[in-house]
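Q: Got a minute? One more chain.
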Amino acid sequence: MKKALVILIVSFQLIGCSSAKGQKTNTKVSGVYEREESSEKLELKSDGTYTLWNPEITFTPVIEQCDYASTGKWTILADNVIEITSENYYTEQKGFGYDLKKENKLSQDSLYIQVVFPTDFHPVSLNFTFNHKNNKSITTDKTYIVLPKSKYLWNRRTATNQISFNLNADVSGTEIYKGRILFKIFEESIDTEIHNYLTITLPCFDRCFFEFEPFYQDLILIKNKNTIIWQGDTWSK
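A: Always. Here it is, folded:
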């Protein structure tokens, strides 16, 4: 029994050591790595965070882009393996924050919706669904719409309407969304007799949000102290 207890204690110690190893970073590994035949850079910081910097634009006309493609944390899993996980925007919906201002103005026969993005860059279509059982919805590229209440809302049986708001991304011909097509913003119960003018502000939906590259437990091979292998390419300090 005593022998078995000793083995059990040693086993837990080994597990603890293994777990700690998987959580620490290595200052010898940290640094800025540049992708082979590209100016794209991966910065592994000594505090355990990383930034994937976009390549410099060398052609004309110059297109606007975010400085970075991804940020998050990195750890060492083994002597020659790094794991990175990006900031968890798309599961915790940190970037999906919104402000909804409700007002009562203009014609009472209509519902007015104004959507405000932080910049002019918003390559998505807006989708509004009204009352699930009513099966009424509209998809538009316009950020300001006027809808007749008689067509889209409950026909005066109740003033409270369930409104769902989504952004639909067109992923054809571009890798900007990495397979993300639908951004679910909110579902709200709104008394449209008291509030018929809605202003929806999306403060985080800028270019960096749309171009963000998510990574979940992505593995990087450490070739030597100055070289890593990631995404099939060589990156060097």
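A: The domain at 98-203 is CATH 2.60.40 (Immunoglobulin-like).
Q: Perfect, thanks.
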